[in-house]
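Intended use. Records like the one below are meant for learning the mapping from a protein sequence to its folded structure. Do not use them to infer anything beyond what is encoded.
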Amino acid sequence: MKLMAAIGVGYFACRIYNVYITEPNFILLLMLFAEVITIFFIVVAKFTNTRDFSIIPCVITIVATFYFFFISLDRGVELVHPIISMFIILFGIIWQIFSKIYLGRSFGLLPAYREVVDTGPYKIIRHPIYFGYFTTHVGFLLNKFSFYNLVLLTILYVLQFGRMYYEERVLSQSDEYCKYKERVKKRFIPFIL
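Structure written out for the chain above:
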């Protein structure tokens, strides 16, 4: 999975480069940076024997992880000024980094139990990394809006909710995580969802 992810980001980097040389856009570089950060944390993740290798979580994880093979980078309408998009994307990236630092080597792609983290952004929502991804994608969509990208990202977040479900199913086998869920009610968007 680590090798697949690294190859996938390499492919995404090539796609971004090809679009960037014809249409320089800092937002594309920010999107690439966000994916490279994810790959870094995947590579340094702790090994665990608790991963869920059943078919549905594996398919959901693979499709949601490699969404960027399909996203349209060179078409779209700017719905807001690019600086607004850039700040939204930067917030999403900073939130991702912040969340991943707190999660540390417990980060992974497949649902697994490594340890329960309940500090930092994990005091506010149970899946802050997904919130960071979502914020980043909203910023991107505001800069490269198309019906195609909207549908693709909607499908991505249906899959991400599936990932959350399967992650919580594995984690809920721990009493510590069940107590954590009682303390932190919101799953995805702080104070809302």
